[in-house]
Amino acid sequence: MSLRVEVFIGPFGSGKTEVAINRALSLVRAGPPITFIDLDLVDPYFRARDARGRIQAAGVRLVAPPEAWDAVDLPLLTPEVFAALAGSDRLVIDAGGEAHGALVLRQLVHLLPSDAAVYLVVNPYRPFMRTPEKIAAARAALETAAGSRVTALVANPHLGAATTPQTVLAGFEVAREASERMGLPIAWTAVAADLLDAVDLPGEVMPLVFHMLPPWELEVA
Amino acid sequence: MATALTDRVLMKGNEAIAEAAIRAGVQAYFGYPITPQSEISEYMAAHLPEHGGAFLQAESEVAAINMVYGAAGAGARVMTSTSSPGISLMQEGLSYIVGSELPCVIINVMRGGPGLGNIAPSQADYFQATKSAGHGDGRNLVLAPSTIQEAADLTLLAFDLADRYRNPAMVLTDGITGQMMEPVAFREGPSLPREVPAWATTGAGDGPVRLINSIYLEPEALEAHNQRLQEKYRRMQVEVRSEAYLMDDAVVAVAAYGLTARIARTAVDRARAKGIRAGLLRPITVYPFPTQACADAAGQVAGILTVEMSAGQMVEDVRLAVEGRTPVRFYGRLGGVVPTPPEVLAQIERLLSEVKAR
């Protein structure tokens, strides 16, 4: 795939930010320039800009509100977002959670290229994403808010630190069934890098390295 | 398709608290949004009506706590949630609830203060939560979860304790615990049968008039009321809960609750890896405070390090419990800065070298 713009949307806690950061870091390894747009206007903690240092150190340009505003409880949409959309970098866009987090896309839709990928990130271990029916309902609400059609799913089946290979496989089955019912492909199944060898999944796998860690799990150099 | 998802789900702390309250049979929720706990209100708005409960967004925290007061008086299982500045606004109503001996659950997802402060995580409301319930001589039961699973479990317990003692029970947590996600499984609750209490103001019918208030104009009558309350607070002491982690052979202890207990646990593990026999003493209830567990530790270790996201609040309870029998040192970060495991480890090593030099 050589799509210029990839947008990640999903319910709260689906893992959009981890998936989007990992996607950006894998793209930059294949060749810069890559710009990551942190479009999360709704979450107070655990946003891509909280991993600003790691993203930038990897060679990805980050578009987010200025660092001085990180702790401000305001929905900030900066002009750099529009400049990036008008530019030529490959873009990875991480929207905030739920329909109200995806709503910001509606005012940007006319600036997206027609072949922009819109990925719905799905974790069937979230309480309201446990069945294909619920995943379909979440998709409908998010599409309405975003004013955009989802083009593919990203399966992200995990239970945090309690994730086992069996967790991944059982969760993937729910995502696969949702994919079949909605006629949407699964672009990737995201799997923690240390579990990759233990699971055998069809399709593309995205190895995940985690960046949205609680403070006591962040290694201090 | 046989998809064997486990019963466990991945939830934010705020969501898990809300779901636990619904499973505890909460009948009414009153609140006003404030970061970093607004997901509790959002979850209640979306899901409590599905279970037959009432959600109402009040016009302020002052109104919300007085709605809690009214609904509790009418015998409903009732709760509110807010973050630090909102708890300050609720102090008057809380005092009336305590004075009127009504059960309710209050969630405080602490953020940085004083004043408007910021939206970052904090533990600086410990004094306010544990030393009083508004003005007067009242007390809250105060539960301090350290994981998302415990946030769910203690929310359920809070409803039972509130009913058992006809007293507010507070779940005291912080912004990170509210916002972070972990796997959680829900047990069924409540453990107490929940019927409309005989004292509830549901209409006296042919019986005696039922009146709920906190006014006792005669000093002797108010003193007697206060003495009854104090007797109740003494009875509450049996509800004390704490966890001892690697304390059996510890020569140095870290005392910490909630989020900082998790950081301290990592620091204790790293100390052990370096050959330092460190342990963790974690209060699960902060009122009643595990005074005896602290006193027991004082007879065993060469020193106790208390770690908080405050300027030093729980450390006063640790010192009262220890009564000077072992050195008590404090390490805290303020304003929403979260201490790191290496910082805590350095403080453990500093305490040990200080003790050895004596």
Structure characterization notes:
The complex is a heterodimer of chains A (221) and B (358). Chain A is an alpha/beta fold and 221 residues long. Chain A has helices spanning 16-30, 52-57, 79-86, 98-102, 132-146, 165-182, and strands at residues 5-9, 34-39, 61-63, 90-95, 117-122, 152-155, 186-192, 205-208. Chain A has a single domain (5-217), classed as P-loop containing nucleotide triphosphate hydrolases (Rossmann fold). Helices cover 30% and strands 19% of the residues of chain A. Chain A has an 8-stranded parallel sheet, sandwiched between helices. The N and C termini of chain A lie far apart (36 Å). The mean pLDDT of chain A is 94. With 358 residues, chain B is an alpha/beta fold. Chain B folds into 2 domains: 9-204 and 211-238, 3-Layer(aba) Sandwich (Rossmann fold), CATH 3.40.50; 242-357, Rossmann fold, CATH 3.40.50.920. A 7-stranded mixed sheet of chain B has the order 3-2-4-5-7-6-12, sandwiched between helices. A 5-stranded mixed sheet of chain B has the order 9-11-10-13-14, sandwiched between helices. In chain B, helix 2 (38-47) links the parallel strand 2 and strand 3 (54-57). In chain B, helix 10 crosses helix 13 (341-357). The mean pLDDT of chain B is 95. The A-B interface holds A 12-13, 43-46, 71, 73, 123-127, 130, 158-162, 166-167, 170-171, 173-174, 177, 214-218, 220 and B 1, 3-6, 8-12, 15, 19, 35-36, 39, 118-120, 175-176, 179-183, 262-263, 266, 336, 338, 340-342.
